[in-house]
Amino acid sequence: MEIKNVQMEAAKAENPTALRILWREIFRDKLAFISLIFLVLVTATVYGISIILDQDEIVKVDLFAIHQPPNDEFILGTDYGGRDVFGQLIIGTRNSLTIGFLVTLMSGIIGIVFGLVSGYFGGHIDNAMMRILDFFNVLPFLMIVIVFVSLVPKYNTVTFSLIMTVFLWMGIARLIRSKALQEKELDYVQASRTLGSSHFKIIFKEVMPNITSLIVVTMTLNLAANIGIESGLSFLGFGLPESTPSLGTLLSYATNPQTLESRWWIWIPAAILILMLMLAVRNVGEALRRAADSRQRRG
Amino acid sequence: MWKFIVRRLLITFPQIVLLSILIFLMSQFMPGDALTGMLDPNVDQSTIQEQRERMGLNDPWHIKYANWVSGLVQGDLGQSFRFKMDVSELISQRMENTLLLGIVTLIFTYLIAIPLGITSGRYNDTLLDQAITGYTYVGFATPLFIFGLVMLFIFGYQLGWFPTSGSVGPGMVPGTLDYWISKLKHVMLPALSMALIQTVSTVQYLRSEIVDTKQKDFIITARAKGASESRVYNRHIFRNSLLPIAAFIGWEITTLIVGTVFIEQIFGYPGMGLLFLESINMRDYSVVTALVLLFGIAQILGTLLSDIILSIVDPRIRIK
């Protein structure tokens, strides 16, 4: 009895779960660890402060306080509508992060299901599904999203994320599919099939857990890309409306030459924040990628 | 190889048809049609209805689609109500600028990528390589529009080395040498900004390609024959690593299209991307539809080009 217990524990120690390996790799990589702490801090701060801050109060136009440089009342000055830049920065970061998370999650779910089904069944099903994917892939993504956004009369964070998701699930789907194609040839899938497991069970309870690390890595790297795309769209003026600022909204004020040239407090903080966020997410993602590939692991 | 190319071309055709149907359906949801903007408010309703009937605006959608496509094939993209001119004419005016921007960007992209990639691959894991890898790492994470703004801020406004907007100086006569010099001056900063960001994936790819090739048997053979180090790198490794890079050209077109929209907006550069944004804001939907279609076709052809080049370069792909 005791021996069996010891053996089981040894087996546990030898085969840590995929998530444990990912976690250990981040912990060992100093840069990734600092990045992760930075991300957690920023997320906690912006969501925490924005509970106290009132979005409508922040975006209310105050014509007596236009373009004030940073001072005691406004830490980062005001924009062309006399709105507090610091408050917009906090709310904007929150909105950008929310959309980034939502799009990553939704496109992740669609992509994973699509990729798993396509790769697992293979053959004609795979062929047909890949043609659909190819078609989405050649669409001029940016233009179509912009047209959509300008046609939909009223939208909020969720609908906006949905529009983005429709055109952003293909990358992860392709990746998961190619992995599923390899995975289904392995013995455990055949064995499970022989035992009479349903396709559904094999796909989602047996194949999917085996590619967890790939899913986590891809979704992390996608998060950085999605935050960039969202702020880019808002920058062009086709993201959320001005009453719901995003990081891109603050940067879009810099298309006014005077703002760009002499009112640094409006756009430089937002630019730095986006850069730091994207670098931090990438650092974490790269550490995870190394962890997922046992040859590159450091720890 | 021809079999692959023909099959690949056969996929392209339905893609373009599907794209056109999608864009057409989208255009049906846009407010206004060919008559809006041409009407005198004093014309009475029955005359308008008559005219609509005559122009086929009340037909079911598949007939309208057929009419639209037959117009497209003949180069008729409709009328811009903002400029009161043919969309095809309007776009061709702007296309010259965007093409110039695209070509200069591509030249810069490869001018930066090839030396950096080769140095980084040849002297891998040295300080120089680490610096280049660091640049590509940060470049990957930097959104193009932020980099564009920063470049404009530094080189356009603070240092004043480059003009900050437009595609040509005022009062230039088209065709003269000064005109072209002024055009080049205007395109330099936008193109450089785009190239510096776009080039990072090519640098990374070239680097890993060279690092891989370095360890192959034929390189050992070349060394054993007594080929000098520079000959090994310039002839044997470089040639073999350069071919996959050639396939990137098609995909660069895709990134260029997205890039021009941002860059033209930031630098106020009057090309197709800026025209697209202006038209959307002005609700000039016939121009929007035409531009989305053109960008879409360019993207499909870019992917096609890449796949074909890749199939020539890498025989394994042909089998699929």
Automatic annotation (TrEMBL), chain A:
<dbReference type="InterPro" id="IPR050366">
    <property type="entry name" value="BP-dependent_transpt_permease"/>
</dbReference>
<keyword id="KW-0472">Membrane</keyword>
<protein>
    <submittedName>
        <fullName>Peptide ABC transporter permease</fullName>
    </submittedName>
</protein>
<feature type="domain" description="ABC transmembrane type-1">
    <location>
        <begin position="93"/>
        <end position="285"/>
    </location>
</feature>
<feature type="transmembrane region" description="Helical">
    <location>
        <begin position="264"/>
        <end position="281"/>
    </location>
</feature>
<keyword id="KW-0813">Transport</keyword>
<dbReference type="InterPro" id="IPR000515">
    <property type="entry name" value="MetI-like"/>
</dbReference>
<comment type="similarity">
    <text>Belongs to the binding-protein-dependent transport system permease family.</text>
</comment>
<dbReference type="GO" id="GO:0005886">
    <property type="term" value="C:plasma membrane"/>
</dbReference>
<dbReference type="Pfam" id="PF00528">
    <property type="entry name" value="BPD_transp_1"/>
</dbReference>
<feature type="transmembrane region" description="Helical">
    <location>
        <begin position="133"/>
        <end position="152"/>
    </location>
</feature>
<keyword id="KW-0812">Transmembrane</keyword>
<feature type="transmembrane region" description="Helical">
    <location>
        <begin position="31"/>
        <end position="53"/>
    </location>
</feature>
<feature type="transmembrane region" description="Helical">
    <location>
        <begin position="158"/>
        <end position="176"/>
    </location>
</feature>
<feature type="transmembrane region" description="Helical">
    <location>
        <begin position="99"/>
        <end position="121"/>
    </location>
</feature>
<keyword id="KW-1003">Cell membrane</keyword>
<dbReference type="GO" id="GO:0055085">
    <property type="term" value="P:transmembrane transport"/>
</dbReference>
<dbReference type="InterPro" id="IPR035906">
    <property type="entry name" value="MetI-like_sf"/>
</dbReference>
<feature type="transmembrane region" description="Helical">
    <location>
        <begin position="207"/>
        <end position="229"/>
    </location>
</feature>
<keyword id="KW-1133">Transmembrane helix</keyword>
Automatic annotation (TrEMBL), chain B:
<keyword id="KW-1003">Cell membrane</keyword>
<keyword id="KW-1133">Transmembrane helix</keyword>
<comment type="similarity">
    <text>Belongs to the binding-protein-dependent transport system permease family.</text>
</comment>
<feature type="transmembrane region" description="Helical">
    <location>
        <begin position="135"/>
        <end position="157"/>
    </location>
</feature>
<protein>
    <submittedName>
        <fullName>Peptide ABC transporter permease</fullName>
    </submittedName>
</protein>
<feature type="transmembrane region" description="Helical">
    <location>
        <begin position="287"/>
        <end position="313"/>
    </location>
</feature>
<dbReference type="GO" id="GO:0005886">
    <property type="term" value="C:plasma membrane"/>
</dbReference>
<dbReference type="InterPro" id="IPR045621">
    <property type="entry name" value="BPD_transp_1_N"/>
</dbReference>
<dbReference type="Pfam" id="PF19300">
    <property type="entry name" value="BPD_transp_1_N"/>
</dbReference>
<feature type="transmembrane region" description="Helical">
    <location>
        <begin position="99"/>
        <end position="123"/>
    </location>
</feature>
<keyword id="KW-0812">Transmembrane</keyword>
<feature type="transmembrane region" description="Helical">
    <location>
        <begin position="187"/>
        <end position="206"/>
    </location>
</feature>
<dbReference type="InterPro" id="IPR035906">
    <property type="entry name" value="MetI-like_sf"/>
</dbReference>
<dbReference type="InterPro" id="IPR000515">
    <property type="entry name" value="MetI-like"/>
</dbReference>
<feature type="domain" description="ABC transmembrane type-1">
    <location>
        <begin position="95"/>
        <end position="306"/>
    </location>
</feature>
<keyword id="KW-0472">Membrane</keyword>
<keyword id="KW-0813">Transport</keyword>
<dbReference type="Pfam" id="PF00528">
    <property type="entry name" value="BPD_transp_1"/>
</dbReference>
<feature type="transmembrane region" description="Helical">
    <location>
        <begin position="241"/>
        <end position="267"/>
    </location>
</feature>
<feature type="transmembrane region" description="Helical">
    <location>
        <begin position="9"/>
        <end position="30"/>
    </location>
</feature>
<dbReference type="GO" id="GO:0055085">
    <property type="term" value="P:transmembrane transport"/>
</dbReference>
